[in-house]
Every structure is written in structure tokens, then in C-alpha cells.
Amino acid sequence: MGNIINASLAGVELKTPTILASGFLGVNSGILKRAAECGAGAVTTKSIGFEKRDGHNNPTVFELEAGTGLINAVGLPTPGFRNMEEEWLELKECKVPVIASIFGASVQEFVEVAEFVAGKKPAMIELNISCPNSKSHGQLFGTSKEASFEVTSAVKNVIGKIPLMPKLSPQALNIAEIGKACEEAGADALCAINTLGPGMVINIEARKPVLHYKTGGLSGPAIKPIAVRCVWQLFESVKIPILGLGGITNGRDAVEIIQAGASAVGVGTAIHYNGIEAFGKINSELEDWMQANGFSSIEKLRGIAHD
Amino acid sequence: MGNIINASLAGVELKTPTILASGFLGVNSGILKRAAECGAGAVTTKSIGFEKRDGHNNPTVFELEAGTGLINAVGLPTPGFRNMEEEWLELKECKVPVIASIFGASVQEFVEVAEFVAGKKPAMIELNISCPNSKSHGQLFGTSKEASFEVTSAVKNVIGKIPLMPKLSPQALNIAEIGKACEEAGADALCAINTLGPGMVINIEARKPVLHYKTGGLSGPAIKPIAVRCVWQLFESVKIPILGLGGITNGRDAVEIIQAGASAVGVGTAIHYNGIEAFGKINSELEDWMQANGFSSIEKLRGIAHD
Amino acid sequence: MIKAPEFAKISRIVPETPTVKTFYLEKELNGIPGQFVMLWLPGVDEKPFSVSQFGKQIAVSIQKKGKFTEKCFELKECDSIGVRGPFGKGFSIAGVKKAIVIGGGCGTAAVAGLPKMLKEQNIKFVSITGARTKEELFSQKNFQNFGELIECTDDGSFGKKGFVTEALKEMLAKEKFDCVMACGPEAMLLNVFKTCEANSTQCQLSLERFMKCGLGVCAQCVIDDQLVCKDGPVFNSEKMRKLSEFGKFARLKSGEKVELKEYYAWRQK
Amino acid sequence: MIKAPEFAKISRIVPETPTVKTFYLEKELNGIPGQFVMLWLPGVDEKPFSVSQFGKQIAVSIQKKGKFTEKCFELKECDSIGVRGPFGKGFSIAGVKKAIVIGGGCGTAAVAGLPKMLKEQNIKFVSITGARTKEELFSQKNFQNFGELIECTDDGSFGKKGFVTEALKEMLAKEKFDCVMACGPEAMLLNVFKTCEANSTQCQLSLERFMKCGLGVCAQCVIDDQLVCKDGPVFNSEKMRKLSEFGKFARLKSGEKVELKEYYAWRQK
Ligand SMILES: Cc1cc2nc3c(=O)[nH]c(=O)nc-3n(C[C@H](O)[C@H](O)[C@H](O)COP(=O)(O)OP(=O)(O)OC[C@H]3O[C@@H](n4cnc5c(N)ncnc54)[C@H](O)[C@@H]3O)c2cc1C
Ligand SMILES: Cc1cc2nc3c(=O)[nH]c(=O)nc-3n(C[C@H](O)[C@H](O)[C@H](O)COP(=O)(O)OP(=O)(O)OC[C@H]3O[C@@H](n4cnc5c(N)ncnc54)[C@H](O)[C@@H]3O)c2cc1C
Ligand SMILES: Cc1cc2nc3c(=O)[nH]c(=O)nc-3n(C[C@H](O)[C@H](O)[C@H](O)COP(=O)(O)O)c2cc1C
Ligand SMILES: Cc1cc2nc3c(=O)[nH]c(=O)nc-3n(C[C@H](O)[C@H](O)[C@H](O)COP(=O)(O)O)c2cc1C
Ligand code: FES
Ligand code: FES
User: Fold this and answer.
1) Percent of chain C whose predicted confidence (pLDDT) is above 70
2) Could you tell me if the CB of B72 is within 6 A of ligand 4?
3) What are the helix (H) ranges across chain C?
4) ipTM score of complex
5) Are D117 and D186 found together in one domain?
């Protein structure tokens, strides 16, 4: 028996359309399972890299005074892909699909991590080609059509049937073209958006940037209009499904990004505002809105703002 | 007798460092003079274009529900540069420097407008190469090093001694390089940043984007971290002074962007929140902070977060 | 205050005259007579309209005169329309003890909320409304329910024959009033203003200009150094005296300043 | 609540032991004992510290043990330090009628605000603090001013000789208590927990893990499915029973899960 908020992303069936965003909570299986219990339709691991990395010193994340969201430069800490056997084992018991997010400093690193991770049979692999908080990883790939194409097709080659989802940067000058390049390279879905910027906050009494890394990506309510625009433009340029995220905090936000073209909805910073219960809240508000407005499925709601 | 908040931008002396941002109020001389009386150290005209343009239909501007600022796609309305004789005459009486903002759809248009406008002897000419709300104008130039260089040097050639200030886009992948290119092309100052994005807001009951143009640039508190980062990066890459703007709403914001490297501070969306009195408020809060923290001039405060 | 346009259901549409309908919207909003909302038809445009009734529901009276208002007239009960606001400064009753309320043409809508407020505040007042002809008078109940109403028609088809300003002159000649509160075509307002000045009577006039933001940022609506959307739309005598452009110039969508005649010709298109 | 770090002037520094100093910061903050703030030294790092006193000023007691705390020890009165918070869930007094408060080592700071609160709420309590040796005992007044304090030293140089848990066992054997509230090294807390379980006594333990965000988003501080910074740092018996990693594993900065021994060795570096 289906529920009206069942969703599906590149063949992965989701009980609810709200997916835990990478970098939030996804450090161990215990907390990922808790997110699933709280209503997440799928969960994404913290981005997994090639070698063990500590990331940046603190402050790495804090809330902006203006109430507009978070700024972060965590700096892609990771135990390294070989170093997570136990987590993989435990994740097998997770009741919702697990999306493995990966990053690398080169196409070769991406490929090696992807090949290994694919062996663990995640429901999907997310390619983080859009992190603004590390010099050699991330954003560099995701803002170039050629680089996005290259890394996507290289990874696609080694992961077999596991669906592949590149995660795009809002900093790209033409996200529609980047998305198209990924689609042509074999991507099965697109994820948009990663954090915005980077930005910087200076503490004027300290006379220093607050983040240890100085600059960091913005997330939360402030970036929602950018996320909605990116999803809108991608929807007009590609046929593969889109995971939309960026500032989604309540049911109305979810409806908005789905109307822009998202098949499922990522949730990150909302967890800061509403705890892990953010998933349940968004799901039930979304369901209520759909019922009140006569929508019987996410699919029918998807992209209707384009008509 | 100097005051501690006197400032100077490419040789233009300013009684206060707060400058009215282009597109806010700058439609006629009456309201520009009022901004000056309310404390603006200089005022910028609404960007002036080649031919008469109506801009987009409404809604063109509205406040974001999240309280993060404004979104706008006014679409560069302009009477056309030849059609403003009366305003120019009246602007001669303005008690503070008047910065003429100009835009064009081609280098040739920029040059023609600039040459004409230079004849009116504004204190400075601002090159709007960063508007996200028109297909053929603006952002296209400001996100390419080559195009920025070309338009800046072409305009510099025809405006004689009048200082030239390109206005940069936060969407540029490397704003430091764009700034450098403008400096090499002869720019006397840089203005950063124009609105962010574009973004989009969908009214989920209407099932349509709210802006008539669908997408629009973001301004206000949400974009301040991006503005601060851009000014920071420009300060490290160029020697010419920087007019910093984007979300500056109170004295502390002004201190922050000056510490990042700005010589003067643009004020736009703050007018929505605090009326034209925004200038006086920012000036007096800035002065109080400087006094309490032992700074005797804007110049001494400028860029200190880099030390 | 609604920041971003929200969709509101139209609960009732009341035809007032051949060209004016009053729309009741299901949106709770509080405000002061003279304040306005921006009404949005997706894909068409967004325009300012005075609110003639605030509260659990709001009422706006729309005159059919161009592309936007024609689309409004196609709306039916249960359809929805976008609303944001209220914006601007409304009429002020501070210090007012005895007032004249004047509405001309669709400007009647902007003052239609005044009688109730004045009555509630125990302020004495007389209302005057005017239109070209009998069928174009509207909103009578908003006035008659709370006080005396004098109606004028240009052609004499109902009430007093002639412009509202003649009725005004007669009243000011007979009696002393604190304040005249008026909205209507600019030519009428100019006349009201001159009459008040000649009689040393304060006035508050609700002006109209083409608007974009409605927020006081774009200056599309500027008259001299005043923003109609934020400093106004209601201006008092002191401010009116300083407005050199009042009754003479207005700005087209491009921002170009033109004579009122040209402005109206453009609006007509 | 301070979201982004604010600079606070250090109004007073009180040396407590050879390795612990209490810093009083000029920042008004309200909170509950057990909650913590993130302290930031620009260019160095930012770390969590329990607040031993809230109000017009806040107090934190810092033990010198690594790079960050060494830098803290270089600070003088009138210098400033960045603060955000308070974060996390503090100790709960709901239903508590008779409590034991235990502080071990620098964990004493986390419970130092409890005696005052318990006294104000008319809750009976006895406090136990412990340290390796006499000079390392601190914060006595915070306890003695409000109730009975039993002090323990590992070497017997002051008070009772032996671990705080022995004092705890003796007390639980003699009398019935509602709740044991403790903070200290994890080995101590494990012992407290076992003792309480054996005596069917509820406990609330304040745990420690390496933290990044302090906000409950990054999960750097995760133990099983609990976030020490947000669900904790104070956990009750019911939650403690479910924590399979407690006393066994913790995570390095990379997120890698290692045995506590390896975790401490890494912290020592
Ligand atoms: C503060 C404020 C409050 C307003 N309140 C109301 C209201 O309560 N009810 C209402 O119907 N309208 C009101 N208006 C006017 C309204 O906003 C629209 O401008 C008007 O309805 C025309 O819209 P349109 O697109 O249909 O016509 P347009 O296409 O803009 O105009 C075409 C026709 O309108 C006439 N017209 C337009 N503007 C004017 C003008 N300023 N003076 C004389 N003729 C004009 C033209 O002569 C022509 O006949 C108000 C405007 C402002 C600024
Ligand atoms: C919620 C919470 C509250 C805290 N409150 C306080 C407080 O009030 N006062 C205080 O001094 N510290 C407190 N801490 C610990 C503090 O945040 C720092 O981790 C600690 O001060 C070490 O910082 P450092 O950089 O100087 O040392 P590091 O370089 O991180 O560590 C070096 C030394 O610290 C020892 N050490 C570090 N962490 C631990 C540990 N978890 N268990 C045992 N030994 C350890 C190492 O063995 C070594 O001796 C708290 C931590 C948390 C999570
Ligand atoms: C603290 C933090 C850590 C993040 N880490 C990652 C990461 O490791 N990999 C990744 O792809 N995105 C990461 N992101 C980006 C989020 O997954 C998400 O794209 C972004 O925050 C926008 O969504 P939101 O507004 O719902 O938070 C991180 C964001 C934050 C705030
Ligand atoms: C309604 C509106 C109109 C604008 N018009 C222009 C313009 O014509 N030319 C221009 O260079 N910038 C224009 N801008 C950008 C502003 O000048 C400014 O760069 C931006 O709003 C960021 O500053 P703020 O956050 O202080 O508003 C406009 C912004 C807004 C909101
Ligand atoms: S309409 Fe924009 S300022 Fe009045
Ligand atoms: S430190 Fe980030 S979740 Fe606890």
C-alpha cells in the first residue's frame, strides 16, 4: 500500500522523500539509523575520502547571527575509505537506503574510492564534486563542464549497476550545462546544491575571520532561493531525477523545491533548527499540504511550477 | 577639521564612508539629495543604459519571508543615457559626490554611455558588469576575466580623468582574478558585490515563480558573508581601493567589511529595513565603535583582519 | 504584514459600477485606511490597490481600466490572487476633530475605510463622493452607515451636479473643518489642495504613481524627494506644498519623467 | 544564546590548582549546570568547556593539558576570548529529592554549579570531589557554601584516601539517594555508573568527546546514536545503558572510531 509521500530517485524506492544530507550526522551507523527512525527516506554518509584527513581546526561550523543559516569549513574529515569496515557492516542493517557520498582530489582518487565503496553495495553513490572548503577537492570539479564529465564517466565505469549521483555546486556559472554534462557522462541522478559561496564572517573585536579556515560554505534558509533556481534550471536541462536541497526546513519548502523539479528533498541545516525530528516534521507538513491541495503523489507535484 | 569617519575612494573625498548603492532610490536628483542629507557620503545613480528600457513586469522586488533580505529582478529599467538632461543639471547641486552607474549590452554600448556620462562630470563612473537580471547585460561580463578587462580598458580610454569603478559579481569563480584584470585594465577602484545568484522563489499555491522574470538577485543580510569574502580576496589581490557592499545594515557590519579591506561601504537593502535613515544609523554606530575601540580613521581600520 | 506574495482566496465579488468591482479576500490583515496592498496575478503583473476594509478579510475595489484590471475582472469567487502588504502610510487622525472625506472615481476606494474609523474615534465628519455619472458612484454604504454623505455627478444624473471640489468649496465657506482627507484623480486632488490652501484648511491627499517595489527602495514612484509607496501614499499639506511635480509630472516604467498627460497616455496603452 | 562567537573580556583569573585556573568572562549568559560553551582563541582552536557559573558573568575552569589550554593559560585579566553557547542539555532536577554530586579532576567544573541550584530548589545533597593529590582539589567553596563536601585524594594527601567511587559506594550502602550526578574522567564515570546500577540508583553523567560544531550537526561527538553535544553532555541511566561505546571507544578528529586508550594518546599529542 503506497503512501502519497512515497518517492523514488533513480530507481531507489523511498518511503519518504526527505534524505539526510551528506556531512550531517553521517559519521556512524548508529546515528544514521536514528535519522531513518525519525523519518528520513534515505541517509547519506559523510563524504568518504581517499586518505585519512582530520579536516580543519575549530571553529568549523557555527550559526550566523542573522539567523540565515550555518557557515562551515569542516574540511572533509574522513577516516579514509579503507578504514570503515565496521560502519559498512552495521549499515547493512539500516532500514532505509544508504547513499555513500565520496570525494577525491583527483579523478584517480575518486575512482579508487568509488570502486571500493561500490563493493559495499550502497543504494547509491553520491559524488561530492562541489565542496567549497578544501583547495584541491570539490568545487574545482563541479564548476567545470569538462571536469564534471570526466570524473562522472570514470566513476560510472567502475561501480557497475549502482546508481551514481554527482552533487553540484551553486557557484557554477551555468549549472544546467554542468548537469547536462554529468547526464551525458552516465549520471543516474543529480544532487543540487552543496553549500554556497564560500563566505566569511569576521569577528570585529577579535579582528579575525571566525572560521579557522577563514572561509566556509553557507547553508540553511538563506540559500533556499539559490537551490530552487538551480533545481529549476536542471529540471529544464536534464531528464534524470534531481535530489533538491539547500535550506529545506519545513513542508512548504519541500513542496517548493519539488515544484521546481526535485524528485526527493535533502535535509541538512534544518537538523540544527529542529533536531533529528526535522524529518518527521517536514514529512508530515508535506503530506498535509499535498492532501489539502489534492496531490496524490510526489511525482504529480514534481516540476509543476514549470507548466 | 577631519572626522574619524571621513573616507576616500580613489581620490574622491567622502564625509562618511556609506555610499548609496546603485538601483536604490537613484532615479531622480530629489531623492539622491535626500540620501545625502540623511548621511550618505556619496550617492550612486540607478544604472544608466544605452536605450530606453522598461525593465521587467512586476513583481520585480519583494522581501524574502525568511527575513534574509530582498530578491529582485527589476531588469535594468532606464530612460536611456541621452534622456536625462534635467537630472544631470539638478545633480550638480548635490552636496556629496555623485557616482554614475552605467551598463551596456556590448563593449560599444558601454563606451558610448560612458563617454556621454563622463561629459556630465560625475565624481566617479561605476561599471555595472554584474547584474544577474538580464540575459545580455551584466553578469556575462563580470564573470569573465577577459571580458572584464576589455570593457574596463575600453571605457577607461574615453572617460579621461574620471575615476572608474567596475562592480563585480559574487558569482565569479575567482573574483580575485577578475579584480586583478580590472586593475590591469586601468580601474581606479572596485565595487563588490552586486546581488547574489540569481535565486528563485516559488509561490506553492500559485505554483509559479513569484518574480515575473522568474529568477532574481539576492541582497541583504543573507549575502553579507559572501560580500565579506569577496572584499577579503580582492584586498589580497589588488592595490586599488574597494567599495564593499552586500547586506551592510548596521555599524558592526560596516566595521566588518572595512576590516576585510573595504575603503568605503555601500548601502542598499538596509534602506528597506531602516528607511533612508539607514545611513545616519550606520555612520553613528560605526563612529561609536571606532571610538570605543581606539580607531582614529577608516584607513587604520581598513584590512586589519588580514594581519 | 505579508512580505512575499501569498495567495488569497476570493470569497466574494461585489459589482459596484459598470467598471468597479469589490473583491473580498480571505486574508487576515490589519492596517489603516489609505494603506495599500500589492495584488499579483501570476504571469501578468502586480499592482497597488487601496484596502477599503481590513480585518479577518480584506476588501479592495478595482476599476477596470487596463490589462491587469481586465484580468482581475475575469476572476471568479473561489479563485485566488497574490497579496502582499499592507504598505505605505495611511490617513492620520492625530489632532483631527472635524473632517471632510472626499473620494473621486476609483479613489473612493482609498477613503472608503475612513468613515468607520472616524466614527469609532468620535471624530465628526462629512463625506463627499463624486463620479462622472450616476452608475459610477459606489461604496455608498461605507459612508452612509457612519455619517452624512454628499454625492456628486459631473452630469447631474444623481445628487449634486458638478465636481466634488464645488461641494467642498461650499462646505468650507459655511463651516470650519480641521482636515480634508481625499483620494481621486490627480486633477481633482490638485483642485482639492488649492481649495484647502485658499481656505487655510489642512488636507491629507492620497497620491498615485506607477509602482514597482512598493517598499521604498526602487524610487519608481518618486515625486520630488518623496516615495509615494513609503512616505505616502497619503501626504499632508506641509509635504504637498513642497512637491513641485504634483499635478505636473510622473514617471514611466523606464523611470523617465514626463508630463502627466503623457503618463496617462502611456498608462492607457 | 550566542550563535556566532563573541569576544568576552576576562575580568578575573583565579588559580585553582597547579593545572587548573578559573576564568571569569564578562558575558551575560543563562543556563543550567552541565551545559557548556565553546571557547575560541583566534588562530588556535575552539573547544568546549563546562560553565560552572552562569549569570551576569560566566565562569569556566580550565585544566592545562594541551595546545589550546596552554594558550588559555597565557591569557591575562583584561584579555578577551571568543565564546558561543551555552549548548547541550544540563543536569535535570526533575523528581530529584536527595542527590549525590561527584566531580573528578577537571570534571569538577561541570558539576560546580550544581550545589547552588540544588540548595535553591531545596533538594538535599552531598558532594564528593576527587583528585590525584591535595593541590589538585579545587572549587571547594562552590560545594561547601551550599552543603556537605567529602574530598578524596588518590594519594591520601587530603581528605579521604582513594577514588571518589569508594566514597560513593559507602554512601549508597548507608543511605538511599535519588540520583547521582557526576562528571570526571571516563574511567571514573564508568565506575560510578556500575556502582549506581548495582545499587539501583539513578545517575546523570556528563560525558566528554572531541567536538567540532557543538550544535548537533556534524556527529564528531557521537556515541552510538547519541550526540554528546546536543543529546548530552549529560545522560541519564536509561540512556547510559544503551551506550555500547561508553568507556570503550571514541572518535578521532577524522571521525575514525578507536579505543579510548588510543583516543587519549592522540589527545596527548
Ligand atoms: C497607492 C495606490 C492605490 C491604488 N488603489 C487603487 C484602487 O483601490 N482601485 C483601483 O482600481 N486602482 C487603484 N490604484 C491604481 C492601480 O494600482 C492600477 O494602477 C490601475 O488599476 C491600473 O491598472 P491596469 O494595469 O489595469 O491599467 P493600466 O494598463 O496601468 O492603465 C490603463 C488605464 O488606466 C488609466 N489610469 C491608470 N493609472 C491612472 C492614473 N494614475 N490616473 C488616471 N488614470 C489612470 C489610464 O488612463 C487608462 O485608462 C492604486 C494605485 C496606487 C499607487
Ligand atoms: C562537554 C565538555 C565539557 C568540558 N568541560 C571542560 C572543563 O570545564 N574544563 C576543562 O579543562 N576541560 C573541559 N573539557 C575538555 C576540553 O574541551 C578540552 O578537550 C581539554 O581542555 C583539552 O584541550 P587541549 O587542547 O588543551 O588539550 P588536547 O591537546 O586536546 O589534549 C591533551 C591532554 O589532554 C588530555 N585529555 C584530553 N581530553 C581528555 C579526555 N577526554 N579524557 C582524559 N584526558 C584527556 C590528554 O590525555 C592530554 O593530557 C570539556 C569537554 C567537553 C566535551
Ligand atoms: C557542517 C556541514 C558539513 C557538510 N559536509 C558535507 C560533506 O561532507 N559532503 C557533502 O557533499 N556536503 C556536505 N555539506 C553540504 C550539505 O550536504 C548540503 O548540501 C548543504 O548544507 C545545503 O543543504 P542545507 O541547507 O539543508 O544544509 C555539509 C554542510 C554542512 C553545514
Ligand atoms: C531592487 C534592486 C535594484 C538594483 N539595481 C541595481 C542597478 O541598477 N545597478 C547595480 O549595479 N546594482 C543594482 N542592485 C544591486 C545593489 O546595488 C547592491 O549591489 C546589492 O543589493 C547588494 O547590496 P545590499 O545587500 O546592501 O542591498 C540592485 C539591487 C536591488 C535590491
Ligand atoms: S515603488 Fe519602489 S520605491 Fe516606491
Ligand atoms: S560536535 Fe558536532 S554533533 Fe556534536
Assistant:
1) 100
2) yes
3) 67-74, 108-111, 114-120, 140-144, 164-174, 186-198, 237-241, 260-268
4) 0.94
5) yes
Strand C2-17 and strand C148-153: the pairing is unpaired
Does residue D31 form part of some domain? yes
Q: Which residues of D touch A271 (CB under 8 A)?
A: 216-217
pLDDT tens digits along B2-49: 699 999 999 999 999 999 999 999 989 999 999 999 999 999 999 999
What domain range includes position C128? Answer: 91-202
CB-based contact B201 C45, cutoff 8 Å: no
Which among A202, A252, A259 has the least Cβ separation from residue B259? A202
Q: pLDDT tens digits for A186-240?
A: 999 999 999 999 999 999 999 999 999 999 999 999 999 999 999 999 999 999 9
CB of A143 within 8 Å of a chain B CB? The answer is yes
Last residue of a domain, one of C66, C87, C108: C87
Is A131 one of the catalytic residues?
Answer: yes
Tell me which residue has cell 554549579: D113
Q: What is the pLDDT of residue B82?
A: 84
Q: Do B207 and A304 touch (CB under 8 A)?
A: yes
Asked if residue C98 belongs to a domain, the reply is yes
- Domain membership flag for residue D1: no
- The alpha carbon of residue B146 is apart from the nearest alpha carbon of chain A, in Å, by 15
Query: By the CB < 8 Å criterion, does A162 face chain B?
Result: no
Q: Which residues of D touch A52 (CB under 8 A)?
A: 254, 256
Where residue C67 sits, what CATH number does that domain have?
Answer: 2.40.30.10
For a pLDDT cut of 90, what percent of chain D falls above it?
92
Nearest to C216 by CA among C205, C227, C200: C227
Chains D and C are touching, with contact defined as 3 or more CB–CB pairs separated by less than 8 Å: no
CATH of the domain at D185: 3.40.50.80
If asked whether residues C222 and C137 sit together in one domain, one would say: no
Domain finish residue from C87, C102, C130: C87
Q: Does one domain contain both D115 and D195?
A: yes
- Answer yes or no: is C1 within a domain: no
